[in-house]
Design a protein that fits this description.
Layout lengths: L1 H18 L1 H9 L6 E4 L5 E5 L2 E2 L6 H13 L5 E5 L5 H8 L4 E5 L2 H10 L3 H5 L3 E5 L6 H8 L4 E5 L1 H6 L1 H44 L16 E4 L5 H5 L2 H5 L3 E5 L3 H6 L6 E4 L4 H4 L7 E8 L12 E6 L5 H10 L12 H12 L4 E4 L16 H9 L6 H10 L3 E5 L5 E5 H16 L5 E3 L11 E2 L2 H4 L6 H13 L8 H32 L4 H19 L4 H5 L5 H5 L6 H27 L1
Parallel strand pairs: 4-5, 4-7, 5-6, 8-9, 8-13, 9-10, 10-11, 11-12, 13-16, 16-17
Antiparallel strand pairs: 1-2, 2-3, 14-15
C-alpha cells in the first residue's frame, strides 16, 4: 500500500513539475499532513483529515458532480476552488467545460493530497491552475493578473476548517472581487451600448493618434504630482505654483477645473471614463499647454478638447482592442482600477516618475465632503440646492449610497468610506506591492489610510530640487518625436468592414442555433442527440471567431444573458435558445453601427 501511494505521489509531482517547477520544489521539501483514505459506499475512495470528511462517505464522485453543476449554473467565467481534496469537484468542473483555479494554502497539505489520489489529469489540464496562497495571501494578485469577467467560489469544507484564518482571508478576497464584478456588471448593463457607440464614433479619429507607449520612461527620476478631486485637493491648490516647479503635474478630469482656477495648466490631463458627465468636466475649460491622455471609448467631444496634443492608451473595450490589434502598433496599456485616479497613477509610473505624490486621493468623505469645491460634482450640488434640498443633502446621499463604513484615516482617526472606494484602495495596495520601484506618497492627512501608500506632509515635497526646465524640455522632446502615421482611414475602413461581415456571420450562425435548440424540445432522443452535436459545432465556431469578444461585451456572464438556471434538458435547450438569441442581437447591433 505504501509503495502504491508513494508511486502516485511521484507521478503527481512530475505532472506538477511540468506545470510549475517552483511549486513542485516547495511541495517536495514540505513535511506532509496525515490524510486517511476511506472507501465510500460507492466503492470510490473518500478521505478524512483532522476528524473531518473531505468528501461524501457515500458517493464522492456524485457529490462532486452536484457541486460542479451548481457552480456552472452561475455562468461565471472562472471557478475558484478553495481546497482540491481528492479532485472530485475539480474533475467534474473540467468535464463541464469550466476554467478553474484551485487554491491551497499549505505545501504540506498539498503534498498529502498528491500522495492520496491520482491527480495527473487535473494537473496537466491547462484549463486548471493550481496556486499556493500561504496564510491566505495572494488570491487578489492572481485574480488581478488573469482578470476574469466573473467568478464563483467553491469550498472544500474540510480544507477550510483546517485552515480557518487563511480561508477567511481567501473568502474576503474573492468576495471583494465579486463585489467589484457586481459593480462592473451593473455598470456594463447601464452603459455598455453607450461605450460601444462612442468607440464607433471615435475609431477612425483615434486610430491615427499616438500612444502612451511613446512616453514610457521619459521622466525617470522626476517626481510626479497626481491631482485627484477629493475634498483635500482644496488644501493643495494654493501650493500648486511651488509644487509645479518640482514635479510633473498630472490631473484627472474631475480635478481640472480646480487646477485651472488656481492659474495652473497641468502637464498632463487624464480622461478615460466614457460617460457623458465625465466629458462635462471639461466644459468651459481650455488648457493649450497640457497633453491630453485618453482612450478611444470616451465621449466624442473629449477628443476635440483644446490641448497641446492628444495621446491614447490602449482601449480596455473589445471593439477598440480588435481594431488596435489589427492596425498596430499597440498604444500602450494603462491600469484601470475603476477610478480615473488609478489610471493617472499608472500613467505616472509609465512615465518613470518617482516618487509619485497623490493629492486629493481621499477615498473617503472627510468632513462629510465628497469632492473639491470647484469640481463639477460639487458645483452641480450647489447649483441644484434649495431650502428644502440643500447641497449638503446631495453629499449625504453620496455618502450613504455605497454601503458606508468607518475605516482608519492617515491622521489616526476614523473616517467614512464605502465599498466602492475600498475597492480602489485595494487596487492601489496591490499595484504598489507589484511595483516597489515606484514609491508613492499620499498628501491627504484626513483621507483613507491605503496600505503601502505612506502619508507625507507637503513640506517633504519642497525638498525636491526645482526641475521645471527639465520637465518642459522632456515634454518638448517627447512631442517632437511623435511620428505621424499618415492617412489610416483606408486601413481602418477595411478592418471595420471585415469585422461587420464577421459579426453578420455570427448573427446568422446564432439564429440557426436558436432554431436547432427550439426544434429539439419534445423530440426523441436521437433527434436531441443530433441537435446537441450541431449546437456544439456552432459553439466552437462562435468561440473561435476573432469577433467573439466584441459580441460578448454586453454580457458579464452566460447567466446574465440567460437569466434562469436549467433543471431539465428542455430547460437547458430553452436557455441555449435565449443565449444565442442574445448573441445574434448583439452581433447585429454592432454590425449595423459599424456599417452606418
Amino acid at each position: 500500500m505504501s509503495r502504491r501511494i508513494d508511486s502516485i505521489y511521484h507521478l503527481n509531482l512530475a505532472a506538477l513539475d511540468a506545470r510549475s517547477p517552483r511549486l513542485a520544489a516547495k511541495v517536495e521539501r514540505a513535511e506532509t499532513f496525515a490524510v486517511e483514505l476511506v472507501a465510500s459506499r460507492s466503492g470510490q475512495p473518500s478521505a478524512k483529515a483532522g476528524g473531518a470528511w473531505l468528501h461524501s462517505r457515500y458517493d464522492p464522485a456524485e457529490e462532486g458532480r452536484k457541486i460542479a453543476s451548481e457552480a456552472m449554473s452561475s455562468g461565471a467565467e472562472l471557478v475558484v476552488v478553495l481546497g482540491m481534496g481528492l479532485g472530485y469537484t475539480v474533475r467534474a468542473l473540467l468535464a463541464s467545460g469550466a476554467t478553474v483555479v484551485v487554491v491551497e494554502v499549505d505545501t504540506g497539505w498539498l503534498k498529502a493530497l498528491l500522495a492520496a489520489a491520482d491527480m495527473r489529469d487535473i494537473l496537466a489540464d491547462t484549463r486548471a491552475d493550481l496556486i499556493l496562497c500561504p496564510g491566505g495571501l495572494g488570491l487578489d494578485d492572481y485574480l488581478s493578473a488573469v482578470s476574469p469577467r466573473s467568478i464563483t467560489l467553491v469550498e472544500n469544507r474540510a480544507t477550510t476548517a483546517l485552515f480557518q484564518e487563511a480561508a477567511a482571508s481567501l473568502r474576503e478576497q474573492a468576495g471583494r472581487f465579486m463585489r467589484r464584478d457586481a459593480i462592473n456588471a451593473a455598470t456594463l448593463g447601464r452603459f455598455g451600448r453607450l461605450w460601444a457607440r462612442n468607440l464607433v464614433c471615435n475609431i477612425r479619429t483615434a486610430a491615427a493618434l499616438p500612444g502612451v507607449a511613446s512616453l514610457a520612461g521619459r521622466f525617470q527620476g522626476i517626481p510626479a504630482l497626481v491631482l485627484a478631486a477629493g475634498p483635500s485637493l482644496d488644501q493643495v491648490v494654493e501650493r500648486l505654483p511651488s509644487l509645479r516647479e518640482r514635479c510633473v503635474v498630472i490631473a484627472v478630469d474631475t480635478a481640472l477645473r480646480s487646477i485651472l482656477r488656481a492659474g495652473i495648466e497641468p502637464d498632463f490631463i487624464v480622461v478615460v471614463d466614457p460617460q457623458y458627465w465625465n466629458a462635462r468636466h471639461l466644459d468651459g475649460c481650455r488648457s493649450p499647454r497640457s497633453v491630453l491622455i485618453t482612450e478611444a471609448a470616451v465621449w466624442p467631444s473629449v477628443l476635440r478638447f483644446e490641448s497641446r496634443a492628444t495621446i491614447l492608451c490602449s482601449s480596455i473595450y473589445p471593439l477598440g482592442r480588435y481594431v488596435e490589434e489589427r492596425l498596430g502598433p499597440p498604444k500602450g496599456p494603462l491600469g484601470a482600477g475603476g477610478s480615473v485616479a488609478t489610471t493617472a497613477w499608472d500613467f505616472a509610473r509609465t512615465l518613470g516618475c518617482a516618487p509619485i505624490c497623490m493629492a486629493g486621493l481621499d477615498l473617503s468623505f472627510p468632513g462629510g465632503k465628497t469632492h473639491a469645491k470647484a469640481s463639477l460634482f460639487e458645483q452641480r450640488s450647489v447649483d441644484a440646492g434649495n431650502r428644502l434640498l440643500p447641497a449638503s443633502s446631495a453629499s449625504f446621499q453620496a455618502m450613504r449610497g455605497g454601503n458606508p463604513f468607518q475605516a482608519p484615516a492617515n491622521d489616526g482617526s476614523m473616517v467614512t468610506s464605502d465599498e466602492r472606494l475600498s475597492l480602489y484602495s485595494s487596487w492601489f495596495s496591490r499595484k504598489l506591492a507589484d511595483h516597489p520601484e515606484t514609491p508613492t506618497w499620499n498628501l491627504s492627512y484626513g483621507g483613507l489610510a491605503i496600505p503601502g501608500m505612506a502619508y507625507v506632509p507637503f513640506s517633504n515635497m519642497l525638498a525636491f530640487e526645482p526641475a521645471r526646465g527639465v520637465i518642459e524640455a522632456r515634454i518638448d522632446d517627447a512631442l517632437a518625436t511623435l511620428v505621424s502615421r499618415g492617412d489610416l482611414r483606408p486601413a481602418v475602413e477595411r478592418i471595420v468592414g471585415e469585422l461587420a461581415q464577421e459579426l453578420r456571420r455570427i448573427a446568422a450562425l446564432s439564429g440557426s442555433a436558436v432554431k436547432i435548440a427550439l426544434d429539439a424540445i419534445g423530440n426523441d432522443a436521437g433527434h436531441v442527440s443530433e441537435a446537441l452535436a450541431r449546437l456544439s459545432d456552432v459553439d466552437q465556431s462562435v468561440i473561435q471567431s476573432p469577433a467573439h469578444e466584441v459580441v460578448g461585451f454586453f454580457f458579464s456572464s452566460a447567466a446574465d444573458a440567460i437569466g434562469t438556471k436549467p433543471r431539465t434538458l428542455e430547460d437547458s435547450l430553452r436557455n441555449t435558445a435565449r443565449l444565442y438569441s442574445a448573441v445574434a442581437e448583439s452581433a447585429l447591433w454592432h454590425a449595423e453601427r459599424l456599417d452606418a
